[in-house]
Amino acid sequence: MQLERFNYDNRIVRDFGVATIIWGLVGMSIGLLVACQLIWPEMNFLTQYTTFGRVRPVHTNAVIFAFVGNGIFMGVYYSLQRVLKARMFSDVLSKVHFWGWQLVIVASAITLPLGLTSSHEYAEMEWPIDIAIAVIWVVFGINMFGTIIKRRERHMYVAVWFYIATFVTVAVLHIVNSIQLPVSMWKSFYVYAGVQDALVQWWYGHNAVAFFLTTPYLGMMYYFLPKMANRPVYSYKLSILHFWSLIFIYIWAGPHHLLYTSLPSWVQSLGVVFSIMLIAPSWGGMINGLLTLRGAWDKVRTEPMLKFMVVALTSYGMATFEGPMLSLKQVNAIAHFTDWIVAHVHVGALGWNGFMTFAILYYLIPRVYKTTLYSKKLANVHFWIGTLGILFYAIPMYWAAVVQGLMWKEFTPEGVLKYPNFLATTLEIIPMHMMRAVGGALYLSGAIIMTYNLVKTIKQGRLLADEAAEAPALLPLITIEHAPHRRLERKPVLFMVLALIAILIGGIVEMIPTFTVSSNVPTIASVKPYTALELQGRDLYLREGCVNCHSQTVRPFRSETSRYGEYSKAGEFVYDRPFLWGSKRTGPDLHRVGGKYPHKWHFDHLLDPTITSPGSIMPAYPWLIDQQLDNTLLQAKMRAMRTLGVPYSTQEIDQALVDLEQQAAAISKDLAANQVEVRPDREIVAMIAYLQRLGTDIKAVAKEEATANANQ
Amino acid sequence: MFKQITNLHGDEIYLITSLWIFLVFFILVACMLVWMKKEHVHYMSDIPFDDAEEKNEEPLKRN
């Protein structure tokens, strides 16, 4: 049999590895900053570009797409070449992929603090960046499939299946979630509205966790863990069952993020059922990983990278048990909108993604530099300080969640809310937030120690950019393979198509009826489109990232209707592009805030929240008073909305600026009557107009009904 | 507790259909596993170790 000589491309692995470390430090540092802002809001340095609402998406996108994203590409480019016995398909495509991805990250890091956001959680970037992401992702896909096609190993190892599923599903998720109608270079509207937008967003959001933070890492686990332990995977058959069940089930679970909202109840129930079923394949993967270490546990004592892997797998097991539990309606009723979700996410992010990335870095860097790790002792210090960091992060957050969740729901014996002032519940958990920041600082310290250790390792070695390898050429198949999966393992395109079908079924069953059956989103006659000024105010609400702390959906619980008012209905959101239900209540829900306070209250609150709410941790927004409202895109925005089905008349669009000025003048006049002098063309006037509109359309119905009843 | 999946006002069809789809899918995957030969399972699990860089390291141990 003729042996072919070729080289593995280690340079691209090194490049992605270095990017992983740099962006990891950046993302974690920003995370620490936002954690501190939840204790000391003045840590936004009193500029609009660093407030919590604008910086929190920078943190989430930096750790997900910059740190973990580069970590995925590092692991994939290393393992893919080796299990396929082939160099990457194209060095040029590898470079385009690397630099294109970094460009996307830098563009996001610039635009998000500027307030240029689509407001879809974990997909906040505006449409030009969305297109760039899609292009770079396709480049990655071509490079990956090109390598698979020119491989010298007939069958694709399990790691490759996970990479294929990741590629195809992330592409589908990203495209469907990013369908927008551009208004300008940095402004667009989603084609979906309200309930439908919420379903698409959480179908995407949940499966971004599944197919960006989970499946590629499972693929890497199946390659790197056996290599680190020098043992084959515990059960290859289990990996097959694990793979197909996981990708099939995961896609259905998104609606568990929307329990008790106005999403049709059958969709919520489907989300719950499939979330519970998800425990089985998730734990199948974890067990397969941990049992791979059977007979090698002695190595865990001496090899820091195996320690990281064990904690990563344990965190995966914890998070994938906790997720289904949180999707039970009874649990969700208490835990949703609290810090429990933050803890849950971070057990996965810090434990599963972070620790496995560290383990792979400790494995890879010495190998591509043909040296040994500079200091095992420092790696052990990193392990323990990182583990402590996770504990200091998660435990206080669970504690805070229980405290705040129960305080929200507590009634006095007389039947009124015991803590009617939301702020009282926020202030109660400040000490837990301080401990969380300590946990984050510990975790970041560990990453800094790792960086020092790896830099020293790099300095003592020399990059083996082209690693020599040899393997027999792949000859034509002369025997017939009867086992169906065996045949599938050598047909990458068919494999991709079947994976695509498996992931499409869930989305189709949940989305098509929600989009096409009108009874799923009943309309309400009194709900009207936003006025020109309110529309402008809504865009300011998006720009400032208010949705990061304030939800806009009142759930049908006595504790919520007593605190906020009537529960939210699907028909109230039909003109909301994007929906702004939120996922966390650092501050109170705002769906019924319209008309609750006078204009002056909102003015004072935005000028300095402690004027109206002493002790508030909300940042001040004085620039809203100074900055003039930019109306240049107003009519284009209204026209775009009309294209999407919002019933703005031609007259309303033509008259938009006049109407806007009239409404602004009325608010300004009311403020003046309350000793507040502010010009009607300032941004704060639009923001007040929007806040005063929230949730008022059905209040109008209630008033009309009351009047009619009185007249009878 | 189970009211949330039994009382769906006529929309149970979505839930039942979905579970049937999964069951059929799961049975198909299980059949593929049953038909898989042990030698192929070993061959596939050893792929990461069929690698030049491992030649000088300790021999592979199987569980």
UniProtKB/TrEMBL annotation, chain A:
Cellular location(s): Cell membrane
Residue ranges of domain Cytochrome c in the record: 532-695
Pathway given in the UniProt record: Energy metabolism; oxidative phosphorylation
Membrane topology note: Multi-pass membrane protein
Key word Ubl conjugation present: no
Cross-referenced Gene3D superfamilies: 6.10.250.2250, Cytochrome c oxidase-like, subunit I domain, Cytochrome c-like domain
InterPro entries for this protein: Cyt_c-like_dom, Cyt_c-like_dom_sf, Cyt_c_oxase-like_su1_dom, Cyt_c_oxase-like_su1_sf, Cyt_C_Oxase_1, Cyt_c_Oxase_su1_BS, Cyt_c_oxidase_cbb3_su1, Cyt_c_oxidase_monohaem-su/FixO
Cofactor(s) recorded in Swiss-Prot or TrEMBL: Cu(2+); heme b
Keywords: Cell membrane, Copper, Electron transport, Heme, Iron, Membrane, Metal-binding, Respiratory chain, Translocase, Transmembrane, Transmembrane helix, Transport
Protein name: cytochrome-c oxidase
Source organism per UniProt: Sphingobacterium griseoflavum
Gene that encodes the chain: ccoN/ccoO
From TrEMBL, chain B:
Membrane-spanning residues: 13-35
Keywords: Membrane, Transmembrane, Transmembrane helix
Domain of life: Bacteria
Protein name stated in the entry: CcoQ/FixQ family Cbb3-type cytochrome c oxidase assembly chaperone
Source organism: Sphingobacterium griseoflavum
